[in-house]
Design a protein that fits this description.
single chain; 151 residues; alpha/beta; Nucleotidyltransferase, domain 5; five-stranded mixed sheet; 4 helices
């Protein structure tokens, strides 16, 4: 499962158990704060069990972190505290929203529909990126599990 936290909405995406297929879910409200969001994530985990949650970490193009990254780190810590068995991974989300917008534009969707779908699509791209790199690391290690690290 992946979330793409934003100030208004939080994009959500899930994958199949093998990490092959990814699909977006309806977004969660982002204005309610990290405590309410953590509760909503608990409901999502009840409906879509997962052992890992990828949290989008917004970075500037030069790699530095701004206020959005600090909020994502606080949210990740709250999730870790509330769900200790859940592995929480922060993952660089640069350009996921841009890629999501391009995908939705290519699908020739109306502006209204794109606005409704963009957060979930960005979360799906985030999760696909994480899974692709994790699978590549698995292959590089001859099937050994990858070492988790925050990017």
């Amino acid at each position: 499962m992946a979330i793409d936290p934003g100030s208004k909405r939080v994009g959500v995406a899930i994958s199949d158990p093998l990490g092959v297929a990814v699909r977006p879910l309806p977004p969660l409200p982002g204005e309610s704060g990290p405590d309410a969001l953590t509760g909503a994530i608990g409901s999502l985990l009840a409906a879509h069990p997962a052992d890992k949650l990828v949290v989008g970490l917004p970075r500037n193009m030069d790699g530095t972190e701004g206020p959005g990254a600090a909020s994502a780190r606080i949210l990740a810590e709250k999730i870790r505290s509330r769900f200790p068995a859940l592995q929480v991974v922060l993952w660089d989300e640069r350009l996921t929203t841009v890629a999501a917008e391009k995908t939705l534009l290519a699908a020739d969707l109306s502006r209204k529909r794109r606005k409704r779908l963009i957060d979930g699509q960005a979360a799906a791209i985030l999760l696909q990126d994480y899974l692709r790199r994790s699978h590549a690391q698995d292959e590089d290690r001859g099937g050994q599990p990858p070492q988790e690290r925050v990017k």
